Amino acid sequence: MKLHVKDLDVAGKRVLVRVDFNVPHDDDGTIRDDTRVLAALPTINELINKGAKVILMSHLGKIKFNKGSEAIAKGKAANDMAPVAKCLADRLGKPVIFVDATRGEKLTSAVAALKDGEVLLMQNTRYEEGETKNDAEIAGIWANLADAFVMDAFGSAHRAHASTYGIPEILNNEGKPTAIGYLMEKEIINLQRCVDVKAEGKPYIAILGGLKVSDKIKVIESLLTKCDRIIICGAMAYTFFKAKGYEIGTSPVEDDQLDYANKCLASGKIVLPVDNVIADEYKNANVVTTVNGDEIPAHMMGMDIGPKTRALFAGEIAKANTIFWNGPAGVFEQEQFQAGTIAICQAIADNNHCFSVVGGGDSAAAVNQLGFASKFSHISTGGGASLQIIENDGHLPGIDIISEAK
Ligand code: ADP
Ligand code: MG
């Protein structure tokens, strides 16, 4: 058992909390879904109530450091944490001190000035190039801010970065407490039910969609050993279509994964779409139509699953006793490509005997936006993390590095 935030004696102490505030947002800072902010509140409130000095940190989006100074500036502007600080203050009903820095005088003096029960959020950890490299210098700078560390960023726990791994590693070596928060606890308990599914939980069906194919496709092989069926939709479907020799037009594809896709198909457990809603353009499409799986014309792209596929998937979902879902079935942000994701939500809602988990920033946003949140047993804040914890039988770097309870 991991040390838990509720077991820490934190009055008057500086507690650094790695939260997951990587919220779906537009480039102008508009937050499209606040699930991840709300999910962090129990841990933050516990620390406030105990009189800790609460220092929050999170990454937000991606910044491309290898594409020149203009791209870096653009990435930083599009992923400024300031709007998240506003959102947090609003949900917390309490002021949040936002520090527009990730190191230096501005940050250290703001931390030194913190009073017991006050909350500070620093700028996006990914403003530091060393964050994703688990750079020792930046991990050391951040570890120096804290008397204790709480890991509550489930959505980032699969990455051994400076803020998720470097800091707790240093604090462990210094004999300072590192603990998990309430969100981590809840996520671990619920996802554990998708790791080792016993006979009464079968059939166990995984549904994989969304856009981050290269991250997610690798998990399929391990899911095949655990699941009875894997339903593939979203952008990932087109890599499988191409592997089968279908024309996929301008649909997204991972060309270096075609052999792997064929290997997965040989299991006989993969269920692919049989028809697709396709469009001529990703945004502002002029032509939108439905065709069979192997009939996508050269100049069109797959945007959602079609009606025959919705019925096929609903039939599979109705049989399941355990469902794990990551990744929307189509480009649900646009109304004309929502039907597939709605159909999956509806089929899960109609199955009242299954334990259902949906994970991922965009997947959770879709479920909320479409009004199905209450129909799921658990909505995980993690996408990649929820997939990897299943793959790694309950282990993630950001969990494993946290101290065990004595
Ligand atoms: P999550 O955040 O839940 O882990 P991803 O980030 O992998 O999911 O993918 C979510 C995105 O996938 C959504 O923004 C959605 O528009 C996109 N998507 C789904 N289907 C397609 C498709 N056929 N083509 C392009 N994008 C798609
Ligand atoms: Mg996403």
In CATH, the architecture of the largest domain is 3-Layer(aba) Sandwich
- Helicity, as a percent range: 25-40%
Strand content: 15-25%
Report the major sheet. 6 strands, parallel
Mean pLDDT: 96
CATH class category name of the largest domain = Alpha Beta
**Which geometry do the CA atoms define?**
globular
Number of strands: 15
Q: How many structural units, i.e. domains?
A: 2
Write the CATH fold name of the largest domain: Rossmann fold
Q: List bound small molecules.
A: adenosine-5'-diphosphate, magnesium ion
Largest sheet: spatial strand order: 3-4-2-1-5-6
User: Uncertain segments of ≥5 residues (pLDDT<50)?
Assistant: none
Gyration radius, rounded: 22 Å
